Automatic annotation (TrEMBL):
GO biological process: lysine biosynthetic process via diaminopimelate
Lineage, highest ranks first: Bacteria, Pseudomonadati, Verrucomicrobiota, Verrucomicrobiia, Verrucomicrobiales
Species this chain originates from: Akkermansia glycaniphila
This protein's name: LL-diaminopimelate aminotransferase
Residue ranges that the Swiss-Prot or TrEMBL entry lists as coiled coil: none
CDD domains for the chain: AAT_like (cd00609)
């Protein structure tokens, strides 16, 4: 008999986006005349074509594979040196942050990396996650057996939830208890919140004092426009001894369908074995990577590297400005009708408080039925998300303008 991993059975059955899909479909079936007018501001996927620098580089990379001279088979598991060097230079050194190319591990995306990283950590860690949360952090820990069962309020036994509320500007306070692994994500999905330097200093000090490791999700780094906001956890002194950073080209370059990301693990970062000996974490990740992964596609890595050329940087900037412009329009529309809004300034999401007495799913239904706009109910991201909803700025400008008009009409 083949025994399954029973931890999977503890997972809440893929609740949020399937439920949204079900409600949208049911409404569209009942109102076929309106179905075509529904605008989706729910899922965080990009809408705009890729920067032409990336397209041209990938076309050329395909042609490389057509000749003996330029053919590429298996590449290095950690990624091509030219991409790792380019990232070290442009994503870090250019911002005054010290990360060397051999501390960068290229992958096919940050979601996989965030799940896979648990391979290199032991079973008895105490783990803290923000609430509301990007569900991947929670579900991968459930699968790995790092939690107990789900409870009445949707939280899992054994995880430490860090409340993110208007009071703390959606930047979690350090916990009273000692934890070993901490997930942080800034700019944040779903709240669009950013962490200031002082916020991150507190977390790094906490991690160093408690011998903890911060798993820092920087997927939305490219949306930071305020020069005072740290672009990387490694901009904070001491972070090289207590943090791993996850980055992705998905939101930076519109690569959600192309697939490329990377992990940064500083040489200094260590964890403890059962005898209390310190072991470099990057050694374990390098071993895992070369055993379970055969490298991201050559074509895709060429496309990613092209995002850092002069043309690529310019086009990426245009792309990000487009989405940030959308976010700004959506945020103003919500404010004009009296809603409280967070995020949207250094992030492609705005986080909106539901009108008093309206739950986040009631708000979802109201927006769908009366405005034909799909949003994401905050409750789907965790118990602290109740009473809020997320509007994604990943859309065309025409759609965003139309959503703004409908928000005005709905609350007029
Ligand atoms: C989109 C996103 C990612 C990136 O995932 P990829 O697998 O690289 O596409 C990572 N973290 C968060 C919070 C995200 O929203």
């Amino acid at each position: 008999m083949a025994r399954i991993n029973e931890h999977f059975l503890k997972l809440q059955a893929g609740y949020l986006f399937p439920e949204i899909g079900r409600r949208v479909q049911a409404f569209a079936a009942e109102h076929p005349d309106k179905a075509g007018q529904i605008i989706r501001c729910g899922i965080g996927d990009v809408t705009e074509p890729l920067p032409s620098a990336a397209i041209e580089a990938m076309h050329k990379a395909v042609d490389d594979l057509a000749t003996h001279e330029n053919f590429h088979g298996y590449g290095p598991e950690q990624g091509y040196a030219w991409l790792r060097e380019t990232i070290a230079q442009n994503a870090y050194a250019a911002h005054g942050i010290r990360v060397s190319a051999d501390e960068i591990f290229i992958s096919d995306g940050a979601k996989c990396d965030m799940g896979n990283i648990l391979d290199i950590f032991g079973p008895d860690n105490s783990i803290a996650v923000p609430d509301p949360v990007y569900p991947v952090y929670v579900d991968t820990n459930v699968m790995n057996g790092n939690t107990g069962n789900i409870q009445e309020d949707g939280t899992y036994e054994g995880l430490v939830y860090l409340p993110c509320t208007p009071e703390n500007n959606f930047v979690p306070d350090i916990p009273k208890e000692k934890v070993d692994l901490i997930y942080l994500c800034f700019p944040n999905n779903p709240t669009g919140a950013v962490a200031r330097r002082n916020d991150l200093i507190k977390w790094v000090e906490y991690a160093l004092a408690n011998d903890a490791i911060i798993l820092y999700d920087g997927a939305y780094e490219a949306f930071i426009t305020d020069p005072l906001i740290p672009r990387s956890i490694f901009d904070i002194p001491g972070a090289r001894r207590c943090a791993i950073e996850f980055r992705s080209f998905s939101k930076q370059g519109g690569f959600t369908g192309v697939r490329c990301g990377y992990v940064v693990i500083p040489q200094e970062l260590t964890g403890k074995d059962g005898q209390g000996n310190r072991v470099p974490v990057s050694q374990l990740w390098a071993r895992r990577h070369s055993t379970k992964f055969n490298g991201a596609s050559y074509i895709v890595q060429r496309g990613a590297a092209a995002l850092f050329t002069e043309q690529g940087l310019l086009e990426t900037h245009t792309l990000i400005s487009h989405y940030l412009g959308n976010a700004s329009l959506l945020a103003s529309a919500c404010r004009q009708v009296g809603l409280r809004v967070w995020g949207g300034e250094n992030a492609p999401y705005i986080w909106v408080e539901c009108p008093k007495g309206t739950s986040s799913w009631e708000m979802f239904d109201k927006m769908l039925k009366e405005a034909l706009v799909v949003i994401t109910p905050g409750a789907g991201f965790g118990s602290m998300g109740e009473g809020f909803f997320r509007i994604s700025a990943f859309n065309t400008r025409d759609n965003v303008n139309e959503v703004c008009r409908r928000i005005h009409k709905l609350f007029a």
